[in-house]
Design a protein that fits this description.
This protein has three helices and 20 strands. The protein is mainly β. It folds into four domains: about 60 residues, OB fold (Dihydrolipoamide Acetyltransferase, E2P) (Beta Barrel), CATH 2.40.50.330; about 60 residues, Nucleic acid-binding proteins (OB fold (Dihydrolipoamide Acetyltransferase, E2P)), CATH 2.40.50.140; about 60 residues, OB fold (Dihydrolipoamide Acetyltransferase, E2P) (Beta Barrel), CATH 2.40.50; about 70 residues, Winged helix-like DNA-binding domain superfamily/Winged helix DNA-binding domain (Arc Repressor Mutant, subunit A, Orthogonal Bundle), CATH 1.10.10.10. The protein has a five-stranded antiparallel β-sheet, with no helix packed on it. A five-stranded antiparallel β-sheet has the order 10-9-8-11-12, with no helix packed on it. A hairpin with a 5-residue loop joins strand 6 and strand 7.
Length: about 300
């Protein structure tokens, strides 16, 4: 065997050739052994895809795989989808706690370690936590941290006002709900702009409402059109929000019911309703109307 191999593997590091730990890698089948198939990148760096994931793969086939450390800390490929990728956050459950740290269910056979030093408080089996995935430089292993604030901040922003973004809810405060934006920044949805309860770990779409001089970010859940609707339409939207996201009125409702709840005529109501529906801000159902929130 060539000196380029150690225990069946070519030397491998976090960035070795094109193969990256904690990411999906597009690789080519190079050779087959009794343990599975070795996949390689353009520089000939190899990683093992265990036999149970091989299926009908053949030499020279291309495949996209996730690369992580196996139980012996060797880089290994898998076709199983992980619940978190490198430099991202996710809300994961603790499966076990031992003398090493907490181990999370991230969708793969080998659980994901959160060392004690990376826990804001002692993690508890069966509980869920927001964590960030990174590569420990000393051990070259994928690990998670509950102290994600050192990786996610607003020092150098990559977003702008009115931009649609991906959000993950972290926790509630007296002001509202804190969220992580695009796995990179932190933001706040103010309490008076929430129309339904958002639990920790919830993933949803949102919009950059305002970026303050100190780089703090205000988030809204409705698209920009919400701020530009005419007064009657805005009144309907506010009433829906005050009612928990749903209002038991529709274009089939009696004029008396519309007047009692909204103090407007049925004609005015239907016109405003049409404008909101055209802007895709509401959903009209036989039993009433509700806000549209992109998930």
């Amino acid at each position: 065997m060539s000196n380029n191999f150690i225990n069946g593997y070519r030397p491998f590091s976090y960035f070795c050739g094109m193969i990256q730990l904690g990411q999906y890698n597009h690789l080519t089948v190079a050779r087959e052994t009794r343990h599975g198939m070795y996949l390689e990148d353009e520089e000939g760096i190899e990683v093992l895809l265990p036999r149970k994931f091989v299926g009908d793969l053949a030499i020279d086939d291309a495949i996209s795989v996730f690369v992580f450390n196996d139980s012996e800390d060797r880089p290994t490929a898998t076709t199983s989808p992980p619940k978190i990728l490198l430099h991202q956050v996710a809300y994961l459950e603790v499966k076990e706690v031992n003398q090493v740290g907490a181990f999370l269910d991230w969708g793969l056979e080998k659980d994901l370690l959160v060392p004690f030093r990376e826990q804001r408080m002692d993690m508890v089996k069966g509980q869920y936590y927001v964590v960030y995935l990174y590569v420990d430089e000393e051990s070259n292993r994928l690990v998670a941290t509950n102290k994600w604030q050192r990786f996610i901040n607003n020092k150098e922003l990559t977003v702008k006002e009115d931009q649609e973004v991906n959000l993950i809810v972290t926790h509630a405060t007296d002001l509202g709900v804190n969220v992580i934006i695009n796995h990179k920044h932190v933001g706040l949805i103010y309490k008076n702009e929430l129309f339904k309860k958002l639990r920790a770990g919830k993933r949803l779409k949102g919009y950059i409402k305002h970026i303050r001089p100190d780089n703090k970010i205000d988030i809204r859940l409705e698209p920009a059109g919400y701020a530009h609707v005419e007064p009657n339409a805005e009144k309907i939207l506010n009433r829906i929000r005050d009612s928990g996201g749903f209002l038991a009125l529709s274009d089939k409702s009696a004029p008396e019911d519309i007047k009692e709840q909204l103090e407007m005529s049925k004609k005015t109501f239907k016109k405003a309703l049409g404008a909101l529906y055209k802007q895709q801000l509401i959903e009209i159902k036989p039993e009433g109307i509700s806000l549209v929130v992109k998930e």
